[in-house]
Amino acid sequence: MIPFQLLLILFAALFRSEIVAGAFTLEGNDTSWYNRPEVHYTPDIGWMNDPNGLFYDATAKLYHIYYQFNPNDTIAGQPLYWGHATSPDLTHWVDHGAVIGPKQNKAGIFSGSIVVDHDNTSGLFNSSIDPNQRVVAIYTYSDPYQTQELAYSLDAGYTFIKYEGNPVIDIGALHFRDPKVFWHNETNQWIMTVSESKQYKILIYGSVDLINWALHSSFSAGYYGNQYECPGLIQVPIVGTNQTKWVMFLAINPGSPLGGSINEYFVGDFDGFEFKPDDEQSRFVDLGKDFYALQTFSNLPESDGVLAIAWASNWLYAGKAPTYPWRGSMSLPRQYTLDGVKLNNETVGLTLILTPILRNATTLDTFEITNHNLTESSPVVTNFTELHDATGLMDIELEFTVINSNLTIRDPTTFQIEFVSQGNSSEDIDMITLGYDLISTSYYMDRACPADAFLQNPYFTDKFSIHMEPDSLDDDGNQKFHLYCIVDRNVIESFYNHGLFAITNSFFMREGKLPLEIRITTHAVDAFIEVNNATIRHLSK
Ligand code: KTE
Known about the structure:
Elements: H1 4-14, E1 46-57, E2 62-70, E3 81-87, E4 94-100, E5 108-116, E6 135-142, E7 146-153, E8 161-162, E9 176-184, E10 189-196, E11 201-207, E12 214-219, E13 228-237, E14 244-252, E15 262-270, E16 275-277, E17 283-284, E18 292-296, E19 306-311, E20 326-327, E21 334-342, E22 348-356, E23 362-373, E24 380-381, E25 393-402, E26 414-421, E27 431-437, E28 442-446, E29 463-467, E30 472-473, E31 479-488, E32 491-496, E33 501-506, E34 515-522, E35 529-540
Parallel strand pairs: 1-20
Antiparallel strand pairs: 1-2, 2-3, 3-4, 5-6, 6-7, 7-8, 9-10, 10-11, 11-12, 13-14, 14-15, 15-16, 15-17, 18-19, 19-21, 21-22, 23-35, 24-34, 25-31, 25-35, 26-27, 26-34, 27-28, 28-29, 30-31, 31-32, 32-33
Bound molecules: ligand KTE.
Ligand KTE binds at residues 49-50, 68, 80, 110-111, 140, 177-178, 229-230, 253, 293, 315.
């Protein structure tokens, strides 16, 4: 006789379905939402890390993103799901919550990608499914061995069915994850890049049906850190030509030279089997501390070019960020192109050009400043609306010329753009700063908001800098510079010389405070720069 309890267990095992994602109970009061970014995607509730499965549905005209999601807490943990969100314009997002979950609690649906299987190469669809909506997710199942699995959707990406032959790749490894798949036209096959993390290998597989995969090659280069994560290979157009090069993106964590997590890339060629980099030099996509696990979109309309989103946080401190009831934010989408860029006055290198995407945001106020000689007594000061109207979302585009380059290290040669909160006294005001120093020929960012408890965290380093050559010279040989910066409540993204480099960071003002206004100031008594043009906007989504 089989005991009743055993029958129950057998029954449960046989009919075991996915475990359900619960949403935890909210404990916060209204003020807990004050610093939730406007246009940087955040989940409605819970923990979020890497962007996953980014794709465009050409029939519904909708962008889909998925994300590493713990709906049960605001820290990373298992069971780990893919969450899901959609947007018509990459700016206004609707969160749909958990969409793919693990078979048991101590497991996770780790990072991965989505492809649109137009031609039904997988055989998972029938003719009733719109070719633009033949959505296949390829992700890592971590239990704790890591294997690559498939799930497909018959309703345009809102629900998924796991492929019954899973896993599709199993090499018996504990650290083997983050498959990113694309269709390679020239060789008529799907290509997967996936990382054998602790071996510092990006494995490149090929398949004609998304189900049977053959190992083609392995790539290893650059700055190692502790391990490789979230690789991605994509063809990127070279500005002003009809040529392209292949770019291999790679994330390393921990072990960034800045601390924690960072994204690097390599430029080279790909023949459908092997990626050959032009050189083995690591180049970093972003020189801030909060830009990780970048993933590109698949199936984009041609006019979008190459777009990608990264996670705007860092594993060193992500779980402690003072936000509630969500934790984790995405970067803005960026468009990527390549250009030959002057790295110094003797060397030109093919470099990624980064263009932030902000479509359909509403402009509330605009300040235009032209031909303004900046001195201590003539700062640029903008007055945004009072707090009740404040969105905490603003941007600035600035062009300036160095009009006195004969200064020495004894002179004040720094100017700064200050993003300032409300407050009655200097102690009461929180401020983050972006500056440029002529003698150092470098920009800096200072994200320290005094009195923010989070700054006690020694890994939440607050100062960053980046060397920039002038963008151009004017007719008199004066150096000209360009920068664009967007601030969104607790994320700052800055772009130098039309997107040649970027620094992205999270920052946290004291509870209830938001960046409200932008000032450009200096301690120089005599002007050493002229603000040719500054456009400062107060925005809402
Ligand atoms: C820890 O860096 C590791 O050793 C983390 O597990 C993060 O890993 C899981 O997040 C990533 C991916 O490799 C995983 O698929 C995913 C990168 O949530 O952030």
